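Table S2 (text version). Query chain:
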Amino acid sequence: MKTKLDIAKNWLPRYTGTQINEFGDYMLLTNFNNYVEQFAERFKCDIKGVGRPMQTATNNDGLSIINFGIGSANAATIMDLLAAKKPKGVLFLGKCGGLKRSTEIGHFILPTAAIRGEGTSNDYKPPEVPALPSFKLHKFVSDKIVQHKLEYRTGVVYTTNRRVWEWDNKFKKYLRTLSTLAIDMETATLFIVGLVNEIPRGALLLVSDMPMIPEGIKTEKSDKKVTAKFSQLHLKIGIDAMAEIGEKGEPIKHFTY
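Corresponding structure-token output:
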């Protein structure tokens, strides 16, 4: 295996238990195995990759879902491995912490950009390159949110590689200077590595906690409550948006700069 593509073609099935030709042209990415389970139950399809680092499911219409794990390193890994498939569109369904009073728990965020605080993306592009989604893909997602008559926000999110930072007042003070809507651990990495691998990409984030205040920090109890109340809707919007892109057959062009 001499090239990146050689490695990706070998490793994508190894990580997922799924052959490259078994994946659909459009994909949902997530950190949550219950999203994969809900997807498989809805479409009566098998879950593959059980016992491996990543689990997948694919419906008969060519839409796949992958649970790639948590964090920027895993986000970079899956976007590198997907170079073996070259999907026509990828949408990340993740959770985030709201940093503004206007971003309440249960709101959806369509990031217009992500600040690259995670460091992982620096191995792919210089720090000054912005982490951006494919806006045409986001248009389909936005339309679906509006059809459901739901609240959503657009703006910049901050991506960090720190999972435990809520105690750090110095870091929280820094976040307040950035005018960011939310914080997560994957979005910037997905956007940059998607850019490098020429994969159209987007993100639909669910606000699951308000970590800037002590009583808003996520707990096992609060996370279960958010999951029970919003996860099915989160997944449905993602499925509907990506299915519509596939049905209309409009290519999402990849632009380099």
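Notes on Table S2: The CA atoms of residues 220 and 226 lie 10 Å apart. The two ends are 29 Å apart (CA to CA).
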